[in-house]
Design goal:
homodimer; 411 residues; alpha/beta; Aspartate Aminotransferase, domain 1; Aspartate Aminotransferase, domain 2; 7-stranded mixed β-sheet; 4-stranded antiparallel β-sheet; 14 helices; 15 strands
Chain lengths: 411, 411
């Protein structure tokens, strides 16, 4: 059986271990919820203060040009593009995932106007399904949202599908769709593809260009550590960009926003997918949060991510097997994202006990404890300690662990 | 002719004069662009740091509940509601003006499904027209955007109009629409009304309840000083709220977002108009910026606003008459918002000269210099100094003003 010293040895050999120092990790906290809200990069507070006090406070309106506020959505977009296998000028940051999804639903629908089936799966994040339902009901024009099981997506692609709307990594099971295969089959049947990268960006090596994906969008407050509710991002394949008819056609997507023409004229390229004025403080925090990624290759992230997840799964199966826990999602690591969910009949209560012991994951109904592994700052020792505490809670021996003793000494 | 000492006397009697100390006003700057980006309230930086370092940095994911992040859109909405004559639980903050406008276009269209005319005017902010054009083209269902001159709106309301989409205060001329009269005529003809309060909120005493307006939306980075790109707000008349079918139906508007049902079910009340996860740093800055409003009555704002505008217009006409300047918009102060635009053939160049002299307004094509008067921090002496410098620039005597002498001494 693996020992803590084995995990410490893995940490000693980890090429990403030095990155942990770039983040604020509260003392004693084992944070396995970076797939929901990433921790604070140390570069962020100074940048937010500079933008607030210096730029807004003293340069005021001139900052839109002098401090590059207008270009921030593009600059941040380009930084994210590198992490998801996309070329420069194909990604913009801004708005929320849900709003960006609506933009892409409208764009895809107009590019495939004779079809009415939107294909998705039951492993999609529900908000994506809600947005598609809202789109369908607004259009009132025969659109059908077809939701199949994740394993059935490939077979459900046919000549009636206008576009697929798939989240690459399942937010509960971590099941990973094959973006390249799904896209290829969709294209073979004349369908377009929209990929939600919420649990992929910064966690798995996405290859938007190589897969031929038509549209994508994603989240920056999870693995990219952009802060609570940080602006989302959106991708359009370069050859499609000038064909997009934006359904949310605001002035930030206009070819000449300061001409104040009365008629909309979309900007060339990715810019037309912008709509209204973006929240600069939150965008600047995101920009600063991305600094830590500049010298990181996603292949290194993936290697450590899989090792962390494998270590966790192995330890859980070694130490918690007696308690009827069951790991969700595929057993093959290559078919998984960067989090692990465990089914347990008392999952909610057990997660509360973990949080009380300073091991933070989250719970997803009906019965899943979810643990996110963020290669930039999660250590193998974290994984060992988390499972150690989980095992003690399940065994009813939580009282003999140092984390509890430390807490008791304080309270 | 009015002297500077007259303006100083007005400042001495100004009941709002003490509010200026709540803002960071850079030394020597006469800032008349608060109708574009309000100055920094001194309460903001500490709040932003608290949210960044303490809440995000140390409480992390638990802050959604412990620090009220989830409720911030409602809390901020209620604070804004008081300033626009709306009851609690009728306003939410979030997203951008353009996105919120799209939500309301969809809502209004579904509530008046047999009609196809959207009535607006050429004094509307162009982005609103762009969003309506995008809506029309997306729907592809016979919608017509009818744009008339501002003076013709009342006459254009008839039984074909589904809803009006009007910005209350014209972003160029400051012309003020009669919200109550337009709404009454619209209702008499079976039409709904959407009001854009971008240049009204915090500037004029809006009475959403009293006017019977159906929908409204607005901006918080102008007179409300929420910061660059601060989240916008949205209002739905209480009796309509549960009838709204949200076109942007994300999880934040779901009745039970954490049940993760596959089907959308709108939350009761105003909440259903929310869509995706909001940018908390920017929302927190806005919340802190609203502190300064808590003891302010909009009637006091209006009284000072009109006095500032009147002083400016009088001084411009007294001192700049020889240079062919012409004040835009109505002459009656009661028909105006809180900014003044001046037509001048060399408006762009003159505005650059003003900015070089530390008097910051902005330029709106084709020929308007625009000056915003923000009663919380603009003084009557500011107005006098701004016109003094404007007059010297137009007279070709800019070199003999202390602002220029001070600059020369430095450079």
């Amino acid at each position: 059986m693996m020992k803590r010293s084995d995990c410490e040895a893995l940490d000693a050999r980890d090429p990403l271990a030095g990155k942990r120092a770039a983040f604020l990790i509260p003392e004693g906290l084992i944070y396995l919820d970076g797939n929901s809200l990433g921790v604070l990069p140390k570069a962020v507070p100074a940048r937010v203060m500079e933008v607030t006090e210096q730029q807004w406070g003293t340069t005021l309106i001139k900052s839109w040009n002098e401090h590059g506020w207008f270009d921030l959505t593009r600059k941040v977009g380009d930084r994210i593009a590198r992490l998801v296998g996309a070329p420069p000028a194909s990604v913009i940051a801004g708005d929320t995932i849900s709003v960006n999804l609506f933009k892409l639903l409208g764009a895809a629908a107009k590019l495939n106007p004779s079809r009415r089936v939107i294909l998705s799966d039951s492993g999609n994040f529900p908000s994506d399904l809600y947005v598609a339902q809202g789109f369908r009901d607004l259009m009132d024009d025969g659109y059908e949202l077809k939701v199949v099981a994740p394993d059935e997506v490939m077979d459900a692609i046919n000549g009636k599908v206008a576009f697929t709307m798939i989240t690459e990594v399942d937010y509960r099971t971590a099941r990973l769709h094959d973006m390249k295969a799904v896209t290829a089959k969709a294209h073979a049947h004349g369908a377009l593809t929209i990929w939600d990268l919420a649990h992929s960006a910064g966690a798995t090596p996405v290859d938007l260009t190589g897969s031929g994906a038509d549209f994508a969008l994603g989240c920056t407050y999870k693995y990219l550590n952009g802060g609570p509710g940080a602006p989302a991002f959106l991708y359009v394949r370069p050859d499609l960009q000038d064909k997009v008819q934006p359904p949310l056609s605001g002035w930030w997507g206009h070819a000449a926003p300061f001409a104040f023409d009365l008629d909309y004229r979309p900007a060339p390229g990715i810019i037309r997918n912008q709509c209204g004025t973006q929240p600069i403080l939150s965008l600047a925090a995101l920009d600063a949060a991305l600094d830590v990624w500049d010298d990181v290759e996603m292949s290194a992230i993936r290697a450590k991510s899989l090792a962390l997840c494998k270590t966790f799964i192995d330890l859980v199966e070694q130490r918690c097997a007696a308690h009827g826990v069951k790991v969700a999602g595929p057993r093959s690591m290559e078919l998984r994202g960067s989090h692990v969910s465990i089914h347990h009949g008392q999952g909610y209560a057990v997660m509360q006990a973990l949080i009380a012991a300073n091991v933070v994951g989250d719970f997803r109904s009906p019965d899943m404890m979810r643990f996110g592994f963020t290669p930039l700052y999660t250590s193998f020792a974290d994984v060992w300690d988390a499972v150690d505490i989980l095992a003690r809670i399940l065994d009813g021996r939580e009282w003999d662990h140092p984390q509890f003793l430390a807490k008791k000494a304080v309270t």
